[in-house]
């Protein structure tokens, strides 16, 4: 069993989210800047140490006005809270290549436990001899739990922005 450091390959990775808009559709967005500190033995991922950081100012939803609003104090308040963080506290193998990765998520100064469903997508060597590993992760969080409560009532009933956020990560990491 060999524990090694892994580095996120941001050019081949994605951190995205989706949220209900007007109770009828979903808006998707992503964060362009993120990094992680990972030490793991790829033959036993339950022993991994994972810390993940997202730069909140790097939010992108294909609408500059919306992105600026999301950066404001009404949402992420990127001036005061420049990062979203995750630190794994427990990793459990479910079956095959599927895991539950639980840990502390901090958004806007609020830390709460969350669990991600994670699939180890495999490991291999790239054309230059570097060892790479792939992971997919997904969870749902309630934004109001983190103080992200801005909303507007709709004339037809309901609200402009749903509370439940789906978070999806597609990560490729390189052995350091």
From TrEMBL:
<feature type="domain" description="Lipid/polyisoprenoid-binding YceI-like">
    <location>
        <begin position="5"/>
        <end position="174"/>
    </location>
</feature>
<dbReference type="Pfam" id="PF04264">
    <property type="entry name" value="YceI"/>
</dbReference>
<dbReference type="InterPro" id="IPR036761">
    <property type="entry name" value="TTHA0802/YceI-like_sf"/>
</dbReference>
<dbReference type="InterPro" id="IPR007372">
    <property type="entry name" value="Lipid/polyisoprenoid-bd_YceI"/>
</dbReference>
<protein>
    <submittedName>
        <fullName>YceI family protein</fullName>
    </submittedName>
</protein>
<comment type="similarity">
    <text>Belongs to the UPF0312 family.</text>
</comment>
